[in-house]
Structure formats: structure tokens, C-alpha cells
Design a protein that fits this description.
single chain, 4 helices, mainly alpha
Length: 84
Amino acid sequence: MTDIAALETEITSAAASAADEAALEAVRVAALGRNGTITALLKTLGGMTPDERKVQGPAINGLKDRVTDAIAARREALKVAALE
């Protein structure tokens, strides 16, 4: 299992340092797209035992939510900066 905290740090820092909307979209696709890293983790849940799923499921879904929030916040900041 990938270290979820390290993955979260890597993705959120990439989102925070995205210079424009296109770069941010590239980060989103790499993490949450069809072949993204978080999507790959979500796909592994089906092969886990129910006990493993109880532990890993909320951790992976929490990671997805936090990354989605970080990307949305950065997108909003880029929109505000573009308006100024």
C-alpha cells in the first residue's frame, strides 16, 4: 500500500504550486483521472478483505476528498488572481 500521507503531500503541493489552470488540470488528471494515482488506489479496494477495506477505504476516500478540496481551492485562487 502506498503511503497515503506522502501521496497527499505530493499531490497537494503540486496543486498549490500550479501556475495556471492548465497546470492545475494536469495535476487533477494525474491524481483523479481514469488512470490517476488515487483512482488506482480506489480500484485496489475491491481485492481487499473486508477488514482491510474497513481500514483502507475511509483513508483512501479521505485522501480523495482532501485532494479534491485542495484542487478546488487552488482553482478558486487562480480565478481570483486572474480577475485582479
